[in-house]
Amino acid sequence: MSDCDFKAEYAKSGRASCKACKSSIAKSSLRLAIMVQVPNWFHSNCFWKRAKVLSQTDIDGFDSLRWEDQEAIKGHIGGGGGGSSSSKGGSAASPLSDYSVEYAKSSQSGCRGCGNKIGKNEVRVSKKDYDSMKAKMYGPVALWHHVQCFVDARDDLEFTSDMDPTSIVGFKKLKKEDQEMLIGKLGKPTAKKRKTSNSTEASGGKKAKKEETEEEKKLRLQSKDLWNIRDNLEKEVSNDALKGLLEYNGQALATGESRLLDAVSDCMLFGPLEPCPECGGQLKYRGDAYYCTGNVTEWTKCQHNTQDPKRKAFKVPKEYHDVAFLKGFKFKKRSRVFPAVTASGSSQVLSSSSAAKPLSGMRFVIGKTTESKEQLTRVIVGMGGKVVNQCDQRTMAVISTQKEAEKKSKLMKEAKAADVHVVSEQFLSAAAKGGAVLLVQTHSLCPWGSDPISRVEDVVEGASCSKSASKSLKSQREEAYFTKSIPDKVKMTVKGGAAVDPDSGLENVAHVLEEKGTPFNAVLGLVDIARGTNSYYKLQILEADKGSPFWVFRAWGRVGTTIGGSKAEKFLSKENAKEKFYEVYADKTGNDWQQHKLGFVKQPNKFYPLDIDYGADDDEVKSLSKCGANSRLSLPVQDLIKLIFDIESMKKAMVEFEIDLKKMPLGKLSKKQIEDAYKVLTELTELIRNEGSATSFLDASNRFYTLIPHDFGMKKPPMLDTEEVVKVGSALCTDCLTVVQSKIDMLDNLLDIEVAYSLLKGGDQNGSKDPVDVHYEKLKTDIKPMDKSSEEYLRLKEYVKKTHAATHNTYDLDVEEIFTVARDGEAKRFRPFRDLHNRQLLWHGSRTTNYAGILSQGLRIAPPEAPVTGYMFGKGLYFADMVSKSANYCRATKTDPTGLLLLCDVALGNMHELKAAEYVQKLPKGKHSTKGCGMTTPEPSTFYTNNDGVVYPIGEGTEADIGQSSLLYNEYIVYDQSQVQIKYMLKVKFGFKW
Fold first, then answer.
1. Range of the domain at 815
2. Torsion angle of alpha carbons 774, 775, 778, 784, nearest 10°?
3. 20 to 30 A from 348, CA-CA: which of 207, 475, 814, 939?
4. Could you tell me if 210 and 217 are in contact, meaning their C-beta atoms sit under 8 angstroms apart?
5. Tens digits of per-residue pLDDT, 922-973?
6. CATH number at residue 892
7. Active site residues
């Protein structure tokens, strides 16, 4: 699928009608399309009134047109809005035909610059928009501005200084004083002496015929030869004979007369194509190269392309010699000529990002440094960064010295106010090896600094110039066009073992047909990043609740948008409905429905079934927010149970992960499918470490997004690739696994949400107990609120206060409640480790949505399917002695400021001490745990030890006597769940400062 905004071809039939004049487009006549998911076709003349094309490379199929049609299109390009090289006023006047000025007819229109209304009879200026979704569908849209707003945005609106305001459409209709005002604001055109061109004759200014270049001559002759063959084939050779010629020459059959003619013409002129060297598939010409149409795996299309494919001689079998043209054909070896404007000479590199340098998308301010500002600027720019003079919230860091950081200079005050880190010059040499975002924190010279990841995202997303910002806003509006009417929640009515799709309109009169415990229901997904595909297909048989009618219901479309459709086909017999269901399922998946449970085999370019459980109606899962009136639990415990079983919080977490809640409602994705997704992420981490091919990343990404449906709206699904990997020599960037790690976190959370949701199902069948009490009992954990005046409560509050890290200064923590926690069976499991030395009371933080899983099943080590990436010291249970380090994992926000923290008795024993990430699969002999040694540690002199020998590392953060470390704070890891006993849970409120 081409990414071009436009398409050109000769009409294959006379059925299509022009979107502008509504009359039919004659067969074989040139037609042009504006691409809006599907082509909107126009007559050639009508097209130029609706579109503005800047280059022939924007038109898919341009190079396959006849030469005279290519030349005609080139004559139009750049004019837009009906302009052409032959327009009145000539090409010099064409750009101004897109601008107009007038008196506002009412006060209803809004200024596209400031957003405010433009008053009636006020002078307003516009530029035609050809690119928005509305413009593509209905024609150019005038973007009106106040005069001053237009002047301020003239660069973005491409009104250059050599343009004459008096030539703007409507200028002459203005009052004299308004004409003078407009000229005064926009200025008279600068006197740019135009170069004398051989295209203009000195005598009368008429255009002379442009001299043909050598390349154009070759392309013209090539086009003539190609179309000569094609025209002869169309006149004299039947479609069956065309297929025979392709088969005889070892080529895959094309579908449709036009494609058959194209394929045979290409073979006869240049020679039949050898199979793809990467997958053995058929190559096909597509504008700028020959692309493989085969598949590397059943999930992913081959990405091979070349401008110089291997070929062989074209042969005509004797039985075709009854056609004079074929009998007299003599093959002469030649290579296809490609226009220089499209020649690439190398295969495309697939990627989700254009950033390829260590500091891409980052801004820096240079303060007082030992190296000169000019030298540092060259280094930063060379690494993809940008040097700015003003420090604000978009700045990644200020580069300076420790001495300067300690002064209260103007720059340091600006950095502190914007919460921007100040880093040393050594940061740049370290960042050259990758991991710039993380290194900002480790090289910080000051106690302040917000999350640097948010700052690099702000720079990239906000863009560095208003033009790209406006483009971003425009794409958001286009996406809204296809997403604004999507409901936030889809009510699924479960009848017959599966949910009746609400789009069928039959949920009140029919149920899903079920036989031998298997409902006739399938939810299918197809993701192809290379083509931008993110599709779903739903299929089910519905049986009337009363009577005998049956329906085969189908729904399809793009995930997260309104693009798509549905169809309910009625049948009088069950057998006929089943036959149709089998037929559609086989067509969409390439598998037999009756055999799919024995083992589904993914087929190329076909859908894959999602294991989504619609077995329980959402009505069974009741919100606890209004329950508790009959509860026997204390109010603090009631509130805690309501918090950890809050359905809305679970939904928010899924939306944050871009999960498609329409196709995968809360709690419906099976554990098996989540485990399968873990395996794909494991593959991806291996690909990153082994520098796998782009095609391998594409294949794994396609599988992951199919297994876990994501809502990307109109955007292409991003590749889970190595584009974030920056390598210098053999050094691997620590940012390279950021994307994969975010997906690991997502699956970890989905598993806990799945546990919480399964606990919410059912409940007390006879209704004798309050739902809050029922769900409390399901946790199999004794939870009691502590006395706020007790010595232990006050000690734990002090632990919170003293171990809040200096660099985690964007929020304060207010302790609202502390609970004692005793999980059933955990004390018994912990008993063998009670006598192990070095037991400490340590912090563990997680989202509130994870605590139903944590309390009911305990803290769990990542499953075997999960990749090793992201676990700095291997798969284990991670703890901290600084409260804010764990609090960061609560993922609290200003709108949801409540978090839950655990304090656990952790039997550490002999610790394997490390200062940098090292994946631990097996501890060294005699070691019981791992300690990641941070540069800041709680002050040991104020530690407390209880009667059971457990150390509470309560103390203000102080510099650790360990030398240099890649960690800011300590981490403790155990690899056996039995070494952990949960003792306390703290309910805290995050007080965000900004």
1. 782-860+872-992
2. -100
3. 475
4. no
5. 999 999 999 999 999 999 999 999 999 999 999 999 999 998 888 999 999 9
6. 3.90.228.10
7. 971
